[in-house]
Amino acid sequence: MEPKTPNDVIEQQLTKVMRRSNAIHVSTASGEVALERSSYGILCLLADEGPQRLGAIASAFHLDPSTVTRQAQAVVRLGLAAKKTDPGDRRATLLSLSDFGERSIKEARDFRRQALDLLLAEWSPADVAEFGRLLSLFNETIDHWDNGAVPAEITNHHLAAPAPDGEPEV
């Protein structure tokens, strides 16, 4: 079936991107660890924002805290992160990157950037910049919606439900 509108094209292409991204497990250059999608998202958050409470991670990814607890246990078990007491509130726990986690996320991000360099090698620099600009705008719009600006006709629709696997999208 041929797309009828620009939104039809966007929907079809986003479906392809999601399907392909779900099939990819991120490997580090050294091959020490293959990062699952949920681990990659958490490690990126910790690398970008520093140590986080599990509740803050759950909020950032719009996940149930129990889901984040399981994912946090997995990255701790792999030695990618460590739990420590929050100095601001000794009752709370912070999740932070371990040295191994820092190396692993750096390697994984470098690997992804190299893959993007290859994928986009035939694009003009202007097209790459425009793609980045539009993708950023798209994500900013999603963030705006995540902060409560979603029209009621969308939130009441079944498509607004979180992904069944409960993993953050990366």
From TrEMBL:
Gene3D superfamilies in the cross-refs: Winged helix-like DNA-binding domain superfamily/Winged helix DNA-binding domain
PROSITE patterns assigned: HTH_MARR_2
Signal peptide range in chain numbering: none
Cross-referenced InterPro entries: HTH_MarR-typ, MarR/SlyA-like, WH-like_DNA-bd_sf, WH_DNA-bd_sf
GO-annotated molecular function: DNA-binding transcription factor activity
GO aspect biological process, one term: response to stress
Residues of the HTH marR-type domain: 7-143
Protein name as annotated: MarR family transcriptional regulator
Species, as recorded: Nocardioides jejuensis
The organism's taxonomic lineage, starting at the top: Bacteria, Bacillati, Actinomycetota, Actinomycetes, Propionibacteriales
